[in-house]
């Protein structure tokens, strides 16, 4: 099986996003930035677009898979996609705090500070906020399964 790169460009980290958001003058520009993050996600194979990879609780269909990437320690490699442009960008954004961490680190990661610093929740609809939390829950559930419980 060929090795896949991480779902989020390795050069982009949460601090980079926070700094970019601070430089952008308004939410229209920030939404465009989020959309750009979504365009940077690698193609998601059609074979992975199956029911068991759907994130429950998202109004727009979003798929998420997570695997352990070999190494010491083994770390999580998440791949995701969505049918919606903005949701695809949100998916890329939400993976950043978790990508490349051990399963235990993923479970212990609280992305609240990252999301608060972006001011994201205040600028999303209620259904998108619910979907965002469902996505984070699914990220952690996958990590927990790889952590052995």
What does this structure look like?
The chain has 149 residues and is mostly helical. It has one domain (14-146): Sufe protein. Chain: A. Helix content is 46%, strand content 11%. It contains six helices and two strands, in the order ααββαααα. The protein has a two-stranded antiparallel sheet. α3 crosses α6. The longest helix has 21 residues, at 126-146. The protein is globular and about 45 Å long. The two termini are 26 Å apart. The model is unreliable at 1-10 (pLDDT under 50).
Helix and strand layout, with pairings?
Blueprint lengths: L13 H10 L3 H14 L21 E8 L5 E8 L2 H11 L7 H6 L3 H7 L7 H21 L3
Please supply descriptive tags for the structure shown above:
two-stranded antiparallel ribbon; Sufe protein. Chain: A; 149 residues; mainly alpha; disordered N terminus
């Amino acid at each position: 099986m060929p090795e896949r790169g991480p779902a989020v460009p390795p050069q982009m980290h949460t601090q980079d996003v926070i700094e970019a958001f601070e430089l952008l003058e308004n939410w229209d520009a920030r939404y465009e930035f989020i959309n750009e993050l979504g365009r940077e996600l690698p193609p998601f194979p059609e074979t992975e677009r199956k029911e068991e990879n759907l994130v429950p609780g998202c109004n727009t269909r979003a798929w998420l898979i997570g695997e352990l990437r070999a190494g010491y320690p083994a770390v999580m490699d998440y791949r995701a996609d969505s049918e919606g442009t903005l949701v695809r960008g949100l998916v890329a954004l939400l993976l950043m705090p978790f990508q490349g961490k051990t399963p235990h680190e993923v479970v212990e990661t609280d992305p609240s500070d990252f999301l608060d610093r972006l001011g994201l929740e205040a600028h999303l609809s209620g259904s998108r906020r619910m979907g965002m939390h469902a996505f984070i829950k699914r990220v952690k559930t996958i990590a927990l399964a790889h952590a052995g419980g």
